[in-house]
Amino acid sequence: MKKKKKKAVHKHHKHHKKAKKEMASAKKKLIAAEKKVLKFVKTHPAKAAAMATGIAAAIGGIAAGTVYLVKKKKK
């Protein structure tokens, strides 16, 4: 019997697999964090508003930083 020739996997495709794994693990972490936040909101309703403001500010800062880096890269 002839041995089947193994197709070469391009390095680029390996990168996609790695990216998918990283995205999956990040999604799991995000879901876990959301559960913690929901639990905190239920137990500390007064502190929840301040925390939500802080989270929104952090997300806004990350988004602004990303936009800045993308614009900087284009130049």
Write up this protein:
With 75 residues, the protein is mainly alpha-helical. It has 2 domains: 34 residues; 31 residues. The chain is 84% helix and 0% strand. It has 2 helices and no strands. The longest helix has 33 residues. The N and C termini lie far apart (58 Å).
Short summary of the structure?
This protein is mainly α and 75 residues long. It contains 2 helices and no strands.
Keywords:
75 residues, mainly alpha, 2 domains, elongated
How are the SSEs placed, and which strands pair?
Elements: H1 11-43, H2 45-74
Helix pairs in contact: 1-2
Mean pLDDT: 76
Count helical runs.
2
Question: Rg to the nearest angstrom?
Answer: 21 Å
What structural class should be given to the helix and strand makeup? mainly alpha
Beta strands, count? 0
Report the portion of residues in β strands: under 5%
